[in-house]
Every structure is written in C-alpha cells, then in structure tokens.
Amino acid sequence: MAPTSEELADHTGKPRAAIHMSLSYEQTRLGMAFHEAGHAVLALSYGMHVVTSEVISWNTDDDGGWAVTGSTDLRAENTSPWHFAAQCAAGTLAQVQYLMIHGLWTPERAAACAAVHDRELAVDALAQAGYRLGRDHTPEGGKSWGMVRGMARRKVAYRWWEIRNVAYAMNERGVLTGDEIAALTGLGNPPFQGGAA
C-alpha cells in the first residue's frame, strides 16, 4: 500500500525528493533498511527514545514499477543538539556503507543516498534550539554539516554490527519498534519523558 502524501513529506510538509537508483528492488529495499537502521541505532546510542523504524515499499503502476522509502519516529527531548544532528546524518552514511560492503557503490548511487531532507531537518531543529549548523560552511559559534557527518561517521563505524542486524531484521519484517531494536542491539530504549510516545 502506497504511503500518504504526509508520509512522503519532509518536516516542512513539502514532498521529499524522489531519486532513482539503478539497483534491483531487493537491493534498494535493503539499502533503505540500512538507512533507517542508521538513524535508529544512533538515536538509541545517544539516549533518544525510538518509537518505530520502518522501510516502506509499494507498487507505483500496473507494469511492476515500485518505490521505497523509510521512516524513523523518535523523541529527542533532553538530547544534545549535535547528537540529534549526527543521528540525522547517520542514515545516508549507513546506506552508503551498505553499498560499499555489497560491491554496489558508484558515485551516482552514493549521491542518490544524500537525503537532503535529513540535513534540512537537522539545520532547522538546531536553529530552533539556538544552534548554528551550516550546510556548506562553519558558522561562527556553530558547526558545519561536514563536521556533523564526521561525528556520525565514527559512530556508524563503531555501531556497524548493530546497524547491520537491525537493517536485516527491518528488511524482513518491514517495521520494528524501538524496544525490538533495543533487544537486537543491546542498547537501551529510554522511556519517553514527555508522556505517551
């Protein structure tokens, strides 16, 4: 079943960019599972509450066309803004690492993993909290997206085993709860402090 337009929108309500990747359905779906697993595992490792993380695929036409997306629902109250930003960067990094490990990496495929909506979410969320995150530069008193990606890259490498396990389970099941991800990784899923998640 196709997601709703709201599920395909970014945090501002605009549609996320659709990008074609020259991979099979199975390769694309597993790559998206790695993307979402990157978000979920880093979120847990930084002490955020993960509600769910999922990979979503659907038929786009009667001729066998298909599309894939994903979603990770988390609560980041009382989290370092820089940790939140690193979690945002982790999806792309995990997806590109998947391509590299499986011999699927090309510059075009890596560029297609960019997930600009994740970067824009980090920029906007940090701005609301009074922090400066530059897309292509280091603002005074802040950090650049490149610096945040460096933080996330180290954490993704350190947590690769957990990301891999979560990605394969998510690819198989479609959706995992935060508690299921915590059980798969040995990481805690702290209770949501703001009430019911």
What are the defining features of this structure?
197 residues; alpha+beta; 3-stranded antiparallel sheet; two-stranded parallel sheet; 7 helices; globular
Give me a quick take on this structure.
The protein is an alpha+beta fold. The chain has helices at residues 25-45, 81-101, 107-112, 116-128, 145-158, 160-173, 178-185; strands at residues 49-59, 66-75, 133-134, 143-144, 175-177. Strand 1 and strand 2 (66-75) form a beta hairpin.
Task: Give a verbal description of the structure.
With 197 residues, this protein is an alpha+beta fold. The longest helix is centred in the N-terminal third of the chain and has 21 residues. A three-stranded antiparallel beta sheet has the order 2-1-5. The chain has a two-stranded parallel sheet with strand order 3-4. The chain is built from seven helices and five strands, in the order H-E-E-H-H-H-E-E-H-H-E-H. Helix 1 packs antiparallel against helix 2, helix 2 packs antiparallel against helix 4 and helix 2 packs across helix 5. The two termini are 25 Å apart. It is 49% helix and 14% strand.
Relative strand content: 5-15%
Unreliable residue stretches: none
Question: In what order do the strands lie side by side in the largest sheet?
Answer: 2-1-5
**Count of helical stretches:** 7
Major β-sheet annotation: 3 strands, antiparallel
From the N-terminal CA to the C-terminal CA, the straight-line distance is 25 Å
Order of helices and strands: HEEHHHEEHHEH
Shape: globular
Radius of gyration: 16 Å
- The percentage helix is 40-55%
